[in-house]
Amino acid sequence: MRPRIQLLGADLIGRILREAFELLMNPGVRVGSAVVELLRAAGVEVGVATNDGVAHIPEPLVQQCLASVPRDFYLYNRQGEKAVHYGGDDVHFDPGSCCVQMLDPETLEARPSETRDLVRIVQVAEMLPQFAAQSTAVVCNDAVACNGIGAPSAIGDLYRLFIVLQHSDKPVVTGSFSAAGLQGMMYLLVADTGSPEKLRQQPRAVFDVCPSPPLNWSEFGSHNLIDLARAGVPAEIVSMPLAGGTAPVTLAGSVTQHAAEVLAGITLHQLAGPGSPVVWGGAPAIFDMRTGGAPMGAVETAMLNMACAEVGKHLGLPTHGYLVATDAKFVDAQAGAESARSAMLGTLAGINMISGAGMIESLACFSVEKLVIDAESIASAQRLARGIEVRGQEVRGDDVRGETLATAMFAQTGLSGEFLKLKETRALFRQEQYLPSPVIDRSARGLEPPSDVFTRARARVDELVSQYRKPSLSEDVLRKFQAVVKREAERESEREADRGGLATALPRNWAL
Amino acid sequence: MSDPLFGAMLQSIIDGAPDKAAELARRALANGVDPLEAVNLGFAVGITFAGDQFGCGQMFLPDLLASAEAMKAAMDILEPEMLKRGSERERLGKVVLGTARGDIHDIGKNLVATILSASGFQIFDLGSSVTPEQFVAKAKEVDADIVGVSALLTTTMAGQKAVIEALDRNGLRPRVKAIIGGAAVTSKWAAEIGADGYSRNAIDAVELAKNLMGRVLTRGTVRA
Hints:
Oligomer: heterodimer
Number of strands of chain A: 20
Helix content of chain B: 55-70%
Largest interface: A-B, 23 and 22 residues
CATH architecture of the largest domain in chain B: 3-Layer(aba) Sandwich
Radius of gyration of chain A: 24 Å
CATH class of the largest domain in chain B: Alpha Beta
Distance between the termini of chain A: 48 Å
Mean pLDDT of chain B: 88
Number of helices of chain A: 16
Mean pLDDT of chain A: 91
Strand content of chain B: 5-15%
Helix content of chain A: 40-55%
Strand content of chain A: 5-15%
Order of helices and strands of chain B: HHHHEHEHEHEHEH
Number of helices of chain B: 9
CATH superfamily of the largest domain in chain B: Cobalamin-binding domain
Low-confidence stretches of chain A: 145-152
């Protein structure tokens, strides 16, 4: 029996969906001009013919679009193998995304993140089986000079994916902050997989696309959604209501708003590309009534993620959530408690992809040391999800009766207590127990002074990086990657010049 | 003109009860209470108390907003009367507010506008996604003391820098002070782009704005 937690139940889910459909009609959803024609062609009434008109989307159309969404799909690794299954109760994890700062393990201060940080995160995540996918985890502030502060820009998105693809064979959870950026990233993925058709058949990446709460599909969000739908590359709709701030204060009310935003997104997406893969995702959180922030470590934030996924699962859709993050500024007890708790809850909710590991300071900062600690929490959660299994068949043979729970083993040991010697023990302990890395301290106190988890995590990161081997990419693919990045950087420079901004600069050694 | 009336005014603000506050304001005028006294001895005491309570974690953002709403309800009644009498509540300063270009997230900015206004600042709210040119034009038009730029996203923080540069280009600084805020903003970023101040939340923004006005006055005194 797979343990599971449900927070809503069928009745409440029914009410949530009924009200979500009501919201789509009244007050309706603000949409970008990119999708106005698409909606009108489907018979939807859209307000003012200018940007960001309000669309009133009727339930039958939404239902029709829901019907064409694939119930599940896979992300593939570079070798063309299925590596992530979006669907059912399968649970996967990827590191948090698009941080701007990195926790320096020496000084314990947050500093702007750089290319070397992203490389290190990718190397560590590549080595850890707990992470089924990579993410474009941190902004490379050394790579993006076009707007003066190294904030994510069109070329910044592309550059991050370029770095990840060079250093990883795993699938990637990524996203773009602009319509132009998305195009470049698609070129990069096509260069990686071989052709647009191959990318459609065996997608290597999923793209996060975010509505703005409440009920607003902005110009670039709408645009990215339809571009992805037409290319057949999976889109992950990340709706992020803040309960009490940008959404109703009640958790049930925020789950309802989330449902309406995702349903609207799915409608736009399926109208543009019926049958294209799309994920019922989200990063919902409560609104902190003292700071006005979004506390990612709060238990209510976890509850929102679980409940939102439960609605998606009820509709039979692939799901995503944002957990395993903390609001602590250091990798301390709060960080461990909040992250482990939400890893556990998200797993028990059966969310297909859970993003957020490695993040501290309410998603403002990344710690690669925390990533290896989170990997232990994730492994524990995955162990819990397997539940209590009856086994023994594996060791049938000789005179061993495998099917009993305990009596067959007692038949061999009597009252001697010598279980350690049993064949069963040796054969089964690896399945019964998760064997943690040295990050988790279970040792008896010895002569050496005991170390804290951060110290052990630092050593673990060094160890993993030293064992990591960079994937061997063909010269041809590398050349194509570099050509895409160079061309997009030039285009971005032209666009910036048109806007009167500074030129885009790649770091000196960008073509690693 | 009694202490109980002032006490009730104070309480209506702490309770965040706009109807009650308006009723008390009307009763004060009917009883011949000087509207300026009603503000300074009654309602404004309440808003200061609410701010302090928020500061020490006893009140929360929704409480604070309700207090500010109550303050506004009282001021809407009292202000026309003060104008008639030529007495005006002391204005702490003129503040132009808006979110940075490209940023539509305005909860934080609205909060700052409400709290600053309740604390006695005159607010000119330009709304969301405001260009540097719009900030400069408004600051010139109203002879602003402070320009505040909010940005939630790391992508729009650059817009804060652009506003400060535009204020510099137009020769408005150092007379006009530039302050910034927003989820991704840090004091380090404020220093980097040469802002005059940064605050983590709306209540700290009141202290910040008051301090900046103090500096302006000090300098004015020196010049005189």
